[in-house]
Amino acid sequence: MRVTRAVITAAGRDQRALPLQTLIDRDGAEKSVLCVIVEEALRAGIEEICVVVCPGDEAAYAAAAGEHGRRLTFVQQEEPLGHGHAVFCARSFVDGEPFLHLVGDHLYVHTDGDGCARQVVALAEAESCAVSAVQPSRESLLPYYGTVGGRRVAGRQGMYVIEDVVEKPTPTEAEQRLLVPGLRAGHYLCFFGIHVLTPTVMDILAQRVADASVGATDVPVGATGRSPQHATDAPVGATGTQAQHTTDASVGATGRSPQHTTDLPVGDRPVAPAHHRPPRRATGPSPQHTTDLPVGATGPSPQHTTDLPVGATGRRPSTPLTPP
């Protein structure tokens, strides 16, 4: 399996302005958030990129992408029918191929040559299945994340077989269904916004869209089909959110069949989405977190951070600002 296409979802009505903001990247250059996300995908070997946007946002996004604008294909999500529906809008672009999925309100910081997305893509290509990145997160943060349950893969550090997926579970539900052996007490594996999905997900979403048309209001991001899936646990230093994940099911669910997850060890806590926290600016020139733990079969773990603050002037990513 080879992954050469990426889908970036940026049509969330509450987060659509975040990718248009500018910041100082760790290379010292001023860039838009969208530009940084696109470069993350390009480092992963992606050749074609689709951005799912609100109607009328194409010109602003093309300008924000700068020199990368010519690489982008824009697809409109005409109605806010959920995150799964936004992914489904890119069905024609995907055209039956596996694809990298990134969310437009997350950014990732790495400490070596391989970006976070590259690690996920490399594992998906090696295992020929879908992969989702996850991070150990405290119980108090479960209301903000899709969460998985499962077991470690023998002989593979940081890799799990996913046996259950619940979107924003309650602590009681998580304790009953999502305990993962080997994690600290009170911690669960939560998604943080990087996935490689197989074409089967589009077939499942098609059915969800059809079901939604006869009564449901939101289209959850669905399963990856009967084949197993791997997920990579969030790279060290995660501070991620899932501001755009407002669906009833999570990206990477595989229905009744187990999926695999690769756990890139997390060195810090995730934080709540932008609309749940007061804004705060980043300070200081140093990048966030410098822990570097091994990532099983995929090499040294990069770091990542989510929702870099709008208008940050230093290199250290921090809490996202509420979009204008």
Tally the helices: 7
Query: What is the CA–CA distance across the termini?
Result: 41 Å
What's the overall average pLDDT, rounded?
A: 75
How many β-strand runs? 13
Principal-axes shape call: globular
SSE sequence, one letter per element: EEEHEHEHHEHEEEHEHEEE
Strand count, sense and closure of the main sheet? Answer: 11 strands, mixed
Helix content: 10-25%
Tell me the radius of gyration. 18 Å
Contiguous low-pLDDT stretches (5 residues minimum) are: 222-227, 234-258, 264-324
Q: Give the class from helix and strand content and strand pairing.
A: alpha/beta
Q: How much of the polypeptide forms β-strand, as a percent range?
A: 15-25%
Offer a few descriptive terms:
324 residues; 7 helices; alpha/beta; 22% strand; 13 strands; two-stranded antiparallel ribbon
Describe it.
It is a single chain. With 324 residues, the chain is α/β, with parallel strands linked by helices. It contains 7 helices and 13 strands. Strands 1, 4, 5, 6, 7, 8, 9, 10, 11, 12 and 13 form an 11-stranded mixed sheet that branches. It has a two-stranded antiparallel sheet with strand order 2-3. A hairpin with a 6-residue loop joins strand 8 and strand 9. The radius of gyration is 18 Å and the shape is globular. It starts with a strand and ends in a 61-residue tail after the last strand. The C terminus is likely disordered.
Provide the fold topology.
Blueprint: E1 5-9, E2 22-24, E3 30-32, H1 33-43, E4 48-53, H2 58-64, E5 72-76, H3 83-88, H4 91-94, E6 99-103, H5 116-127, E7 130-138, E8 146-152, E9 159-167, H6 171-177, E10 187-197, H7 200-212, E11 229-230, E12 232-233, E13 259-263
Parallel strand pairs: 1-4, 1-6, 4-5, 7-11, 12-13
Antiparallel strand pairs: 2-3, 6-10, 7-10, 8-9, 8-10, 9-13
